[in-house]
Amino acid sequence: MTVFEELKWRGFVNQVTHEELPALLEKERLTLYCGFDPTADSLHIGSLLPILGLAHFQRHGHAPIALVGGGTGLIGDPSGKTRERSMLQREDVERNVAGIRKQLERFLDF
């Protein structure tokens, strides 16, 4: 089963606008990434789908990058809410990154 067929079978793909996409995914090794925000030492359920997507691509020979960005955690994120997120200390961000890495290592081979 190709990576595209597996993702489609598992419900990751609803529709495709580029007809050659399935063939392109098999033609060459791709590098793809997903960013995770280190505002807590644990990811939430909303991160599971992108993590599983990265894992499926890795199992099919592609190169996933799970980027756990420290900058956003340090400076806060202007998310449009009535108040901004509190800035974290560097030690807090480092602890959060370590916790997230442990979770990611269950799915991805570093």
Please characterize this protein's 3D structure:
The chain is of the alpha+beta class and 110 residues long. It is built from 5 helices and 2 strands. The protein has helices at residues 3-9, 21-27, 48-59, 70-75, 90-105, and strands at residues 31-36, 63-68. It has a two-stranded parallel ribbon with strand order 1-2. α3 links the parallel β1 and β2. The longest helix has 16 residues, at 90-105. The mean pLDDT is 88.
Give a brief description.
This protein is an alpha+beta fold and about 110 residues long.
Instruction: Specify the helix fraction band.
Output: 40-55%
Q: Radius of gyration from the CA trace?
A: 17 Å
The structural class is: alpha+beta
The side-by-side strand order for the widest beta sheet comes to 1-2
Through-space gap between termini: 24 Å
**How many extended strands?**
2
- Count the DSSP helices: 5
Shape annotation: elongated
Strand content: 5-15%
N-to-C SSE series? HHEHEHH
Give start-end ranges of low-pLDDT stretches.
none
Outline the secondary-structure elements:
Blueprint: H1 3-9, H2 21-27, E1 31-36, H3 48-59, E2 63-68, H4 70-75, H5 90-105
Parallel strand pairs: 1-2
Give short descriptive properties of this protein.
alpha+beta; two-stranded parallel sheet; 2 strands; 110 residues
